[in-house]
Design goal:
homodimer, 285 residues, alpha/beta, Rossmann fold
Chain lengths: 285, 285
Amino acid sequence: MTKFNKITIIGVGLIGGSIGLAIKKRRLACEVIGVFRRTSTLRRALKHKAIDRGTMSIEDGVKDSDFIILATPVLLIPTIAREVIKYAKKGAIITDAGSTKEWLVNKIERTLKPSKPVFFVGSHPMAGSEHSGVEFANGDLLKDSPCIVTKTGRTNKNTLGKVVGFWKGLGARVEIMSPASHDRSVSFISHLPHLVAFSLAGTVSEKELRYAAEGFKDTTRVALSDARLWADIFLSNQKEILKSARLFEKYYKKIIKALARRKYSEVARLLEAARAKRSKFTNGR
Amino acid sequence: MTKFNKITIIGVGLIGGSIGLAIKKRRLACEVIGVFRRTSTLRRALKHKAIDRGTMSIEDGVKDSDFIILATPVLLIPTIAREVIKYAKKGAIITDAGSTKEWLVNKIERTLKPSKPVFFVGSHPMAGSEHSGVEFANGDLLKDSPCIVTKTGRTNKNTLGKVVGFWKGLGARVEIMSPASHDRSVSFISHLPHLVAFSLAGTVSEKELRYAAEGFKDTTRVALSDARLWADIFLSNQKEILKSARLFEKYYKKIIKALARRKYSEVARLLEAARAKRSKFTNGR
């Protein structure tokens, strides 16, 4: 893969910080620069050694950079991309780490000017945890985890190759697909599970929590995630999430209906079909 | 706690086997006897050292026993209890490990004859995993996990004390409550999460599973559980599960409605309320 001279990460939290640590661990750049909105976060990122140098200015952070990663909350990414495109040098490559792709990629591609050779390819490294903040970052977070890189009619082939190479260099399993396919897939395997986990956690009373065991703990773990971050993600992929939700409700209601009618073999059949599907995921790992 | 001479476990799978291993590890009985329906399971339980002696006959297994634990699939427990009561010696204590309590405790209490001093107290050791079978049993499964012991108008106080002492002896955190309270609580913190996890796993297509990451994995882990075992549990606690499900749907639909209307602050508020609740569970451990 290409080794970059300078890589800039805008937004150095759990994901941005883990990317920084991985780049430094694997020596994929001479310098990792972080761009921050708050000095307190800048200090924490330096202390955690997730970056080599921090700045509060996008202009200062990106002007000499070869590769720029937007790792802020998803709704902010297009606005920040606009600034980055203004100040990035010719030939710079921009990518992001946002959880939804279609509206974001569309917006950023419309911001790019043919007169200025700055390139963008959307990415979604699918790693993370219920924690947030650079303190939880670790250089192996992306190792062996899926990373989707998006391709559109406007994608530059050479840039696509470099972005794919970058994530592979961090140890991720890269898949290339359209922004729309990405959004549909993640609505099922990430956004919907979060929505359902938040709903479950919201349902249980504090009294009952005392008896909760491993099953409840795992099923609702992702409901510990940052609420505003996930409100962002839900809004940014609203259409696909609502579609996935309807399919979830369909399966759920089938079980409920069979249970209400005490149809034992129908309940068992629905649970077994679900179990068989889930077991394929485990085998695939 | 009371040390028993002979303890019998009927149904030596994940839970029954873990109880056997824990009794032997903590030397709470002179002999642990297992009762089986299949010789293959008997051999596996002996090989795994979960019991000292195995038999295919309930009569043989319980006739000299001081303490008898029914750890079969939940729908079978009352039928087996009827046999056990017939052959148990005077003064024997019977308990179970079933996931629902009210119908089961009612049924067994009605089987008890005042003329024969055999005692029953319902239990629910809330440990387990998505696995089943004695191969996955381990002597620390119950350690620090909640165990609910039920009390009714017919419960003998002395027996209650011995059953509570037994589970505490295995390291469990015991709570005493009525069978109805138990069923309401577990419908929220165990049965409903299983129902939702099965529904989620049933919704996702195999293609999308390729991109699934930690969030999906944890949220749907319990959907790897034995389908017939869980169909049993769902049917046995049908009324309470359907009630809990309605509360879940209420919360879920609030989020969906706010999302459909793009009401960002309402979505964020609902997610934050759920997150705050879930975070109380983590702190409690």
